[in-house]
Amino acid sequence: MESLKKPNCANSSPLTPLGFIERAATVYANSPSIIYNHLTYTWTQTYRRCLQLASSITRLSIGKGDVVSVLAPNIPAIYELHFAIPMTGAIINTINTRLDARTISVIIQHNECKLLFVDYQLTPVILEALSLLPDHCPHPILVLIADDEPVSLPTGKFINTYEAMVEGGDPGFMWVRPENDWDPITLNYTSGTTSAPKGVVHCHRGTFIVAVDALLEWVVPKQPVCLWTLPMFHANGWSYVWGMAAVGATNVCLRKFDAKTIYTAIRTHHVTHMCGAPVVLNMLSNGERLTHTVRIMTAGAPPPAAVLLRTEALGFDVTHAYGLTETGGLVIACSWKKEWNRLPVMEKARLKARQGVRTIGMTEVDVVDPESGASVARDGVTQGEIVLRGGCLMLGYLKDPESTAKCIKNGWFYTGDVGVMHTDGYLEIKDRSKDVIISGGENISSVEVESVLYLHPAVNEAAVVGRPDEFWGETPCAFVTLKDGHGKPNPTGEEIMQFCKGKLPGFMVPKSVVFKDELPKTSTGKIQKFTLRDYAKKLSSTVKSRM
C-alpha cells in the first residue's frame, strides 16, 4: 500500500469550478441560465458566450496570473465574467459598486489589474479613480458594459464594448485549465466594515470546495430559480455564482431592487432561492404573504430573532449561515433539527439566529481563548475567538504577509469574531472583537443589545456602538431608524431606553439613542460601525452617564 500513497497522472487533475458550466451546457443545454428584463439565455448560449469572451480577452495579451477587474451590478455580464476571466488563466477581481473613486483607485493600484470591465452607469467614478492614480502606475485597458443602452465610447478611454468582445470571440476557444489546485482564481477585497480593506486571494481548489459545500448545506435541488439579491461582487456571491451552474439554475438578475421589485420577481419567475444579508430580511419582513415557499440563505451579521420571525411568517424559509471573504463562502450553518419544529415560535427564531455548526466541507471549527489558544467551555456563555480549518480558506492577503501571518497561525485561521459554543455544539457569534463595548470593566455584546432593540414595534434598523464616557470608559450608544407608518407617534430616545430596561442588564441598556434616516452600510448590507463610532465620539460628552 505504501507505493500507492501518491497521486498519479489520472487522479490528480486540479479541481476547478469552471467545469460546472461546461457540464451545465450538456445536461441543461436548453434550460434557461440567465433572465434579465426581457432577455433570456440558455446554458448552451451562456457557455458559448463565456468561451467567446475568454477568447477576446486572451487576444488582449491577458493570461495566467494577470488580474482582470469588474465594476458592475448584478447583470448578466458580471455572471459571465466569473467564468470567462478565469477561463483565460487570469484572476477575477470584482469591485464593490458602492465604493468611492479614492478607494477604487487604491484597489486598482494595489492589484495592478491589466483589464477593467465597467458598467456604463459607473463610468464617472472609474474615470475619476483612474485620474487619482500616481503617474508611475499603469492604467488598465477599459471595456464598457453598455447593457442594453445605446451609448458611445468615451473618446480615448474605452477600447471596446462588452457585447462586441463577445460577438468577436471564438466559440471554439479551448479554455485554460489550472495547472495546479492552488492556482489563484479570484481576488476579493474585504467588504469595508473596517476602514482598511485587504485583498483576499482564493484558489481553484478552494472555490470548488466551498461552491459544492454551500449547495449541499442548503440542499439546493437541480434547476432551482435563484434571484440575485446578493451582490455577485461580494465574495463572488458566496461562490453561488459558480455553484448555480453546477445545478443548472435559472439566475434571475436585477440591476437594483427594493421590496416591491423582489416580490414581483418572486411571483413572475417562481423564485425558489435567494441570498442576502439580514437587511434584505428586514426589507421583506413587512411585505406580502407568499403563495409558495422561497428559501433564503442569510449571513453577514446575526439576524435579530424578531426579524426572522416576521420573515418566516410570510412564507420564507430562512437558513442562517456564517462566512467571510477569507473563506470564499459559507462555512458554518444553523443546520435545523426536526425536533425543533415542536418548539414555540420565539424559541425557534432564537435557535435559528445562531450561526450553527461547520458545513460538511469545513474540517474544524472552534471557539478559543485568543491568548492561550485553548477551547473555551461549551456553556453558551464563555466567549472566545472563532477559529477555522478547511480547504476553502484563502491563500492569503495579496502583498500583505504580515496580516496573513497575524490571522493564520497555530494551524488555524483566526476570524476576529467573538462567539460562544453552546452545550449542543452549535456556535453563536456575539460580536466582532472590535465591536465589543467595554463599560466599567464589563464586556457588552452589541449584537445582544441590537436584538432587543429590534423587538420594539417602531424600530426598523438598529446598531449599537461604544460612546466614550469619562466615568465608565464607554457606554452603549444606539443608532436606530424607524418604520414608516407604524401607526403610533415616533418614540423618544427615553422611551427606547425604557423599553430595553427589564430585557437587559442595566449596564447593557443604551445610555443614548440617535435617530437616523438611514444607517451607513456596505454594499452587502453590513452596517459600517466604524462610521457610527466616529459619530458617537463627536456627541456631546458634557453629561456623564450613570447606571
What does this 3D model show about the protein?
It comes from Helianthus annuus. One of its GO terms (biological process) is phenylpropanoid metabolic process. This is AMP-dependent synthetase/ligase, AMP-binding enzyme domain-containing protein. One of its GO terms (molecular function) is (E)-caffeate-CoA ligase activity. Residues 22-398 form the AMP-dependent synthetase/ligase domain. The protein has 547 residues and is an alpha/beta fold. Among the domains are: 14-206, Rossmann fold (3-Layer(aba) Sandwich); 436-538, GMP Synthetase, Chain A, domain 3 (2-Layer Sandwich). Helices cover 28% and strands 25% of the residues. It has 17 helices and 27 strands. The strands form 6 sheets. It has a 9-stranded mixed sheet with strand order 2-1-11-10-12-13-14-15-16, with helices on both faces. Strands 4-3-5-6-7 form a 5-stranded parallel sheet. Strands 17, 18, 20, 21 and 22 form a 5-stranded antiparallel sheet that branches. A hairpin with a 4-residue loop joins β14 and β15. α12 (305-313) crosses α13. It is globular. Mean pLDDT is 90; it is low at 540-547.
